[in-house]
Write a structure and sequence with these properties.
single chain, mainly beta, 5-stranded antiparallel β-sheet, 4-stranded antiparallel β-sheet, 9 strands, 59% strand, globular, disordered C terminus
Length: 105
């Protein structure tokens, strides 16, 4: 499989890496082994921004998902035994804001 990574961010002291790109997905890898741990989908166009808060285990991603609308998505991420669990917490687009409350991963 071939894809481009437009942007990447470190997670948990550089042991893991998240990247985003043209194929609409966010991916997480183990830096030491190079193993792909997770693929996260939710955007409808290339993901152009990525930020991670390690203390809160939150990842933010953004993309231009409609003609000229920037969509920002909030994800919760949890690393357990070298597997990354994730859920979409909410999103914001054109002055519309939605947060989904999730009980658990």
């Amino acid at each position: 499989m071939c894809f481009s990574v437009l942007l990447y961010r470190e997670y948990k002291n550089g042991k893991h890496l998240f990247g985003c790109g043209d194929d609409l997905k966010i991916r997480g890898w183990d830096v030491k082994t190079g193993k792909l741990l997770v693929e996260m989908s939710g955007h409808f166009s290339k993901v152009t921004g990525l930020a991670i808060n390690n203390e809160e285990n939150v990842l933010l991603s953004c993309a231009r998902d409609k003609v000229s609308t920037e969509l920002i998505m909030w994800w919760t991420i949890l690393l357990v035994q070298n597997h990354i669990y994730h859920k979409i917490l909410g999103y914001e687009s054109e002055n519309r804001f939605s947060v989904r409350c999730l009980n658990s991963l």
